[in-house]
Design brief:
single chain, about 180 residues, two-stranded antiparallel sheet, 2 strands, about 0% strand
Length: about 180
């Protein structure tokens, strides 16, 4: 294995760990559901924007699923993995697409993040209603997921802009 591949794996593992910690460190219980609002999506978005592709998706999916597993939400692990993986892939693809058509980077982060967070909200509604069998009762989590998505989007954009200014994003992109 080449040094670049090893470095890519290490960065992916680092982002997975950061996602797990960000998801686990602040948990605000939601009313009417058995869930919680967290800031893990900040790192999910950063994984998409900074690593991108399958590696960014894996960092997002593995880190988020691990947080569910360690937090006692075992039934959510497969859904969380798929939803967060897809969030990162979609945010990455949209960011690249917006960049190609010359949409300003700031707006590209916002637009790609909005779509990713809406995907998360819809994904959890579908997972809870169909796979977990909650039916329409799963709609109770839509509001808290939208709040989590909005807060994570704002924090994610602020953090990525700081990391761009500090040239951290450029440094990481050299290795992935």
């Amino acid at each position: 294995m080449t040094n670049k591949k090893i470095t890519r794996l290490v960065i992916t593992a680092l982002f997975a760990a950061l996602t797990c910690v960000a998801t686990s460190i602040i948990k605000i219980p939601t009313v009417g559901t058995n869930g919680y609002v967290n800031i893990g999506d900040v790192v999910v978005l950063l994984s998409a924007w900074m690593i991108g592709g399958a590696y960014g998706g894996l960092a997002a999916g593995v880190g988020s699923a691990l947080a569910d597993l360690l937090g006692g939400y075992g039934s959510y692990v497969p859904g969380t993995f798929v939803i967060k993986f897809m969030m990162a892939i979609v945010a990455y693809v949209l960011l690249k697409g917006f960049t190609k058509i010359r949409i300003q980077t700031f707006f590209s982060y916002i637009l790609s993040g909005i779509v990713a967070e809406l995907l998360m909200t819809a994904g959890y509604f579908l997972f809870e209603s169909v796979v977990l069998g909650y039916g329409l009762a799963a709609a109770a989590s839509i509001g808290s997921n939208l709040v989590q998505g909005a807060v994570s989007l704002v924090l994610g954009v602020v953090v990525v802009l700081i990391l761009v200014q500090a040239k951290v994003v450029k440094l990481i992109k050299e290795y992935v």
